[in-house]
Amino acid sequence: MVTNSTYDGLCYDAVRVARELAPSTPRVHFDEAWFAYARFHPLYAGRYGMAVGPDTFDSPDRPTVFSTQSTHKLLAALSQSAMVHVKTSPRAPVEHDRFNEAFMMHGTTSPLYPAIASLDVAAGMMDGPQGHWLIDEAVTEAVRFRQAVVRTGRRVAAAGDRPAWFFGVWQPDTVTDPTTGERHAFADAPAELLRTEPSCWHLSPAADWHGFPGLDEGYCLLDPVKVTLTCPGIDATGTWSDHGIPARILTAYLTTRNIVVEKTDSYTTLILFSMGITKGKWGTLLDALMDFKTLHDADTPLDRVLPGIVEQYPRRYAGTTLAALCRSMHDHLRRADLVHLLDTAFQDLPEPVAPPQWCYQQLIRQGTERLRLADAAHRVAAAMVTVTPPGIPVLMPGESTGAPDGPLLRYLGALEAFDREFPGFRSETHGVTVDPDTGDYMIECVREDRRAALPPS
Q: Of the four, 21, 260, 269, 377, which is 20 to 30 A from 99 by CA?
């Protein structure tokens, strides 16, 4: 199973992925929850699951491909409306009746017919030239916003004022017109080029803006409609700077302006340009970014910027300014090196010691207990732990929590310390219960007396 595109808009060459996986699996499942529109714009050609077929992969080894899409996320369907697509192959054919029987195990006998109807509406909107036009409009507005942010940053830097900082966008610094070979700064590139040329959005192997080493040319493309705003504080290589604007503070401020972001990391904020976004809407966001900078540079009292936070936690934030909060949170994140800890926690995978099914049985039969992080070393997890962002499980049922100074418990401990230090800005952590009196993180583990019955993993 492959997530494509990722939350942040990284789209793979789906045909190449299928070719590379074909020797080891007869079926490939592309999780395209945020990518239901890809079929309807040439910018994404070959980068979605249903592009894998006899015309692109003519071989007996071609796997059967599944694509699942949360249609409601970026097309016009009601919440929870989703689709599953199947392109079968002779190598691993899918019989419809059997597939339907398995599917209905997880369905309902009381469907919401307006949701089903909304799927028909979403499909109808995409059918024909209007589908291309609607997605093209979203791409165009995303390109205009991206260029506007970069141009604003250039004007701030040219003004010579101190501190000379502004927000950035995670994207290439320069693009090349493949027809003429002419190279453009991203902010100055023709909008038509950025709107129509996929190579402008490739993560080139030699580029340092994206932070991913070892990529092949053309393998990965950045989706223009998923705009990641970057805040000062750390770059794509993990290098810290003295001055920082943690993104959680920016997101809290944008909320007061009725601007809802999709995802907030330590120093990035994700904005989705779905159908219906106009210059008026993204202009409001750009104004808010400028206003935040003005409030920060003026050392504005926090009760004027985030009055709700100050009212809820007066002992912590009374008398604090916006700049002081940014400074203290940035210093905390840099000392804890939270970004590096997150990276390590997802690269040094936990050891599986028991089947997840067995752990679930313990969970529903009083065979588990909640433990503080300080007491949870070398225990067997009984429930999934998922930190958002990035929204990916860091610990699965049946995996070992590892050593006290191991990557998992160090990362969760750093989040716990952050939450204590900055109430009102905590991470969303599924599978973690927070003690209301002490603020301790507690996770569900298999009881020690049940480990004697532990089956082999």
A: 21
Query: Running DSSP on this structure, what letter comes out for residue 133?
Result: H
Question: Which residue(s) pair with 429 in the sheet?
Answer: 387
Rg (CA), the chain: 24
CA atoms within 13 A on the CB side of 110: 0
Q: Tokens 């310390």, residue?
A: 417
Q: Which residue positions in the chain have pLDDT lower than 50?
A: none
Distance CA 60, CA 217 (A): 27
Calpha distance 366→390 (Å, rounded): 31
184, 177 in Cβ contact below 8 A? yes
Rounded CA-CA distance 21/31 in Å is: 15
Angle at 210 between CA 272 and CA 289, to 5 degrees: 45
Smallest Cα–Cα separation from 299: which of 329, 327, 268? 327
Distance CA 194, CA 139 (A): 9
Tell how many helices (H) and how many strands (E) occur in the chain: 15, 18
Q: What's the number of CA atoms in the CB half-sphere (13 Å) around residue 217?
A: 2
How far is it between the farthest Cα atoms of the chain?
71
Sequence-distant (6+) residues with CB within 8 A of 23 are 61
Question: Which pair of tokens denotes residue 411?
Answer: 């990362």
Return the sign of the alpha-carbon dihedral for residues 336, 340, 345, 348. Answer: negative
Q: Residue 423: what pLDDT?
A: 94
Tell me the backbone φ, ψ of residue 191, rounded to 5 degrees. Answer: -60, -35
Q: Which amino acid is at 291?
A: D
